[in-house]
Amino acid sequence: MRNLERELKNTIEGEVRFDDGSRALYSTDASNYRQIPIGVVIPKNKQDVIQITRICHKYQAPILCRGGGTSLAGQCCNVAVVIDMSKYFNKIIHIDPVNKTALVEPGVVLDTLQKEAGKYQLTFGPDPSTHYNCTLGGMIGNNSCGAHSVMAGKTDDNVLELEILTYDGLVMRVGAVDKEQLEVLQNEEGRKGEIYRRLKEFSQKYSHLIEEKYPQIPRRVSGYNLPWLLEKGGFDVAKALVGSECTCVIVLEAKLKLVYNPPARSLLVLGYPDIYSACDHISELMSYGPIALEGIDDVLMSDRNQKKIHAQDTQILPDGKGWLLLQFGGESKKESDAKAQKMMEVLQKRENPPSMRLYDHPEIEQKIMETREAGVGTQERVPNEKGWEDSAVPPERLGDYLRDFRRLFQKYEYECALYGHFGQGCVHTRIDFDLYTTEGIAKYRSFIDEAADLVVRYGGSLSGEHGDGQSRAALLPKMFGSELIQGFREFKSIWDPDWKMNPGKLIDPYSPIENLRLGPDYKPVKVKTHFAFPEDDGSFAKATLRCVGIGKCRRNENGTMCPSYMVTKEEQDSTRGRARLLFEMLQGEIIGKNGWKDESVKQALDLCLACKGCKKECPMNVDMATYKAEFLSHYYQGRIRPRSAYAFGLIYWWSRVTSHFPTIANFFLTHSFFSRFIKWGIGAHPKRSLPRFARKSFKKWFFQRTSSATGHKKVILWPDTFNNYFHPQHAKDAVDVLEHLGFEVSVPKVSLCCGRPLYDYGMLTLAKKNLRQIMKELKKEIHDGTPIIGLEPSCISVFRDELTNLFPSDMDAKRLKNQTLLLSEFIHFYAKDHSFKPLNKKALVQGHCHHKSVIHFEYEKEILQRLGLDIQILDSGCCGMAGGFGFEKDHYDISIKAAERVLLPSIRNAPLDTLIIANGFSCKEQIEQATGRKVYHLSQIIKMTFNG
Ligand SMILES: Cc1cc2nc3c(=O)[nH]c(=O)nc-3n(C[C@H](O)[C@H](O)[C@H](O)COP(=O)(O)OP(=O)(O)OC[C@H]3O[C@@H](n4cnc5c(N)ncnc54)[C@H](O)[C@@H]3O)c2cc1C
Ligand code: SF4
Ligand code: SF4
After folding, report:
1. pLDDT tens digit string along 669-684?
2. Which ligand is nearest to the CA of 568?
3. Nearest CA, atom 1, ligand 2
4. Which residue, by CA, sits nearest to atom 6 of ligand 2?
5. Atom from ligand 1 closest to the CA of residue 245
6. Whose CA is nearest to atom 27 of ligand 1?
């Protein structure tokens, strides 16, 4: 291993990581399985991949390529050298709009290709639910497809040519070859000629078995793609390799077919009494030419309600307990609607027609499709719902298959939701398998045997979408027979005679109950925590199991999650990577031998901005900001923290002291020599300006003012450290606004702090103490139900989030949480009918991450609109400053890159008369320091309306 690592390091341009942390990071995909790789390499280019393979061949080390790592059947984890193609090897080389083709490197993410192809009204047809993260290499590996395979087929139907690399070092381009070309190719000297000779012999030897054993259904994904090697398959070697799950070759480049993308879409939903009767009509409905035909049952919808995920979704569906979602495409909405209406007219005349709803609201249509899309892998934790989740049968037999399938669940007493790509007979299931206990695992093993028998009886495929990997491969003999399985061995051997490409997957596999990520031996270390993790039954270990691996946190754009991944494109800087390392830390097998003192976990958490983006946007609500705070509190126990932790973490205390001599402090903070020295002393980056203290704090002003208004209701304005000591004008304006609205404003006399900055540095004992003090000092107001109004979103998020996680059974904590509101929320609830003088201006709004995650950001939007502003809310994610993070020397670059992604260019491009609005201290600092544009707080904007 050492020699292999050394030689790789000396040879390739990319990165070579054989350390325990990196190996732990890549130990699993989105499946039930876990295998620790030999090492991880991240190639920069094609030449790197060739060198890696040559060196691995020399040391006879197995190889596994990886894209987004979202495989569900275990084909993307192995004891192998993992080649991560996603970071660098990800260019779209060329799009040819005339011939409708694209040439791509394997690490290109599907959404990136779709965006480029979309410029020509083209699209790559197969669209898995993981489109935001899955790569073309991974899609080719798995023969992926999605809702629109009705329109455009699976990946194999859309691959024209591949440039491939074999384990023994041959690079060649493959595609369809006619008889004459094959003749020429098989006569070539060397390995290439040998491959073609053997492929020809192979196809002749097995043609009758391939004809006989491969089901003629739209969603046959199981097994090697051998029908493409038959004459009627065009002897298409590229297509035959699609779906080979890296067990044969490495894909270096792919030429893909693009298809026309109808610009207008209409969604029609049909409701039936149950999912079975819905499926009895599939064949007829398909004759109306939908571009997608999906199905969902009532169990899936009720589960969603229970978990309060998209609870409103059920209300927008027509009556029924089983629904079919039909999407029609057209040049115009009129055309696509007409197609749907034609079908509705025919159905309406039938006896017992289904309930029907044709939607005309793009947002609702998207929501319904996303509800279906979000089905797989997002409700239950690893490994519960995976293991049998994508069988496919002939669509015309789907209703009967599902009836028998349901009987099988009942026999095994499994609960199950049914949904999927019903137009093509592909069924997704969510079954609550018990893969923790020996009995549960034995029951699962027996179930999948019977489930496979059932599919085969219906002429179907064990996998209709996700591939065989490890979870289905052992069952393949049931579908293909032992003779053809021998053919699979021979096919693999043609490409990989050393049997080193992703061994133990797809063919001659590990057992489906081997290498389980949890299994009966799963016994995480029990740890004592500061946070109570009430939603995880008080267990930090359970919290680390939340991540199901689907990789939404590896998006390149849209939303907040995950700003550090968006910048670095590193697995360890994604929420998933961090969650995995925390899981591995508690396993203590490869990392975590020093418990909380683990360096690889520390390193992975280092770039977490604690933005809470994941808490809201991850389908499993992974709450990395909290895990990070918990981890750091233990990591630093008995150790000195970095200087910046004491500088920024304790800013409340520094500010209290400094507020007695702000002018002197500001002199030193802004003086070129002294400020350089101070920045060095507190670990800040030299390019940062340190915020200046206000001459008079807000509280001083408040208690010295001579006039105040008495209102009809008493409220407390929360004087957070930032608005109290740095931006008192925001708080002063807030007092004016609240009094103007008829409230009597009070401010706590004693000095209090919610402790927000402490969380970022894991100073949880102190943070807890602060909260205890607040609850003690404000006991009366808490019991009186006095609203507490905040101006700084990150501080209010402490009351809304951390507070009850630290004091889960304290009723005062619950009361305080419910009584604390951000200014816009307060106005939404308590000044509903107040009409403001319209400002009639344009505004750009940077929402604070915590505001969007744990506070009602929609009320901010509402209030800004009530102020007569024409607002644009930036989809810029985290501003990158995130408290002390962006000030710190080691984080400055990442901070700026995060801000330069969308936020700063948008601000620079905004006309000067556009108002820039941001409530967060960090967002304001980042924008003002980087662009020089003035940023307003909501309180200031409302105050402007007083003057017209
Ligand atoms: C929640 C969820 C929903 C899903 N929905 C769908 C769906 O709708 N449709 C669908 O088809 N799948 C779906 N999947 C499965 C998976 O997301 C897709 O198969 C996806 O296309 C895999 O892409 P990836 O980049 O993550 O591949 P990876 O998991 O990284 O790799 C997939 C396979 O390809 C191999 N591979 C990767 N790169 C190369 C290369 N350069 N050369 C050779 N082999 C390579 C890998 O070794 C592996 O065997 C879903 C998964 C999840 C978790
Ligand atoms: S952290 Fe959330 S979004 Fe990321 S992979 Fe895990 S479950 Fe998916
Ligand atoms: S808190 Fe923010 S930076 Fe940290 S993992 Fe979650 S989304 Fe990423």
Report:
1. 999 999 999 999 999 9
2. 3
3. 576
4. 547
5. 49
6. 138
Number of helices (H), then strands (E), belonging to the chain: the values are: 43, 24
Cα–Cα distance for residue pair 785/840, rounded to 1 Å = 36
User: Measured between alpha carbons, how far is 87 from 872 in angstroms, rounded to an integer?
Assistant: 32
DSSP H or E segment with residue 104: strand 101-104
Compute CA distances 561 → 554, 571, 630, whole Å.
Answer: 8, 13, 20
Q: What's the per-residue H, E or C state across 514-572?
A: CCECCCCCCCCCCCCCCCCCHHHCCCHHHHHCCCCCCCHHHCCCCCCCCHHHHHHCCHH
Atom of ligand 3 nearest to the CA of 615: 6
Written as six digits, the tokens of 705 are 């003012």
Residue 429 carries which side chain, given as an amino acid letter? T
Nearest ligand atom owner, CA of 243? 1
Q: Which atom of ligand 1 is nearest to the CA of 373?
A: 8
Q: Is the pLDDT of residue 382 over 50?
A: no
891 Cα to the center of ligand 3, angstroms: 14
Nearest to 199 by CA among 418, 483, 411, 493: 493
CB-based burial of residue 639 (10 Å sphere; 0-12 exposed, 13-18 middle, 19+ buried)? exposed
Q: Show the 3-state SS of 451-488.
A: HHHHHHHCCCECCCCCCCCCCCHHHHHHHHHHHHHHHH
Alpha helices in 671-712, H assignment, sequence order: 672-682, 698-704
φ/ψ (deg, to 5) at 427: -115, 125
Contact 304, 310 (CB under 8 A): yes
pTM: 0.95
Task: Report pLDDT for 416.
Answer: 87
* Closest residue to atom 21 of ligand 1, CA basis: 139
**Ligand 3 atom nearest to 628, measured from its CA:** 4
Separation of alpha carbons 584 and 296, rounded Å? 35
Q: Exposed, middle or buried: residue 505 (CB in 10 Å: 0-12, 13-18, 19+)?
A: buried
Distance separating alpha carbons of residues 89 and 231, to the nearest angstrom? 34
Nearest in space to 221 (alpha carbons), one of 134, 301, 126, 313? 126
Residue 131 Cα to ligand 1 midpoint, Å, equals 10
Beta carbon of 134 within 6 Å of any ligand 1 atom = yes
Tell me what pLDDT residue 305 has. 47
- Residue pair 864/843 in contact (Cβ under 8 Å)? The answer is yes
Q: What contacts 24+ positions apart, CB below 8 Å, involve 334-341?
A: 334/264, 335/264, 336/262, 336/264, 336/265, 336/266, 337/266, 339/266, 339/288, 339/289, 340/266, 340/267, 340/268
Using pLDDT thresholds of 50, 70 and 90, give the confidence band for residue 948: low
Interatomic CA distance for residues 336 and 130, integer angstroms: 26
- In the chain the first and final C-alpha atoms are separated, in Å, by 73
Quick one: pLDDT band at residue 361, thresholds 50, 70, 90?
A: confident
Could you say which DSSP state residue 684 is in? B
Q: How many CB atoms lie within 10 A of CB 672?
A: 6
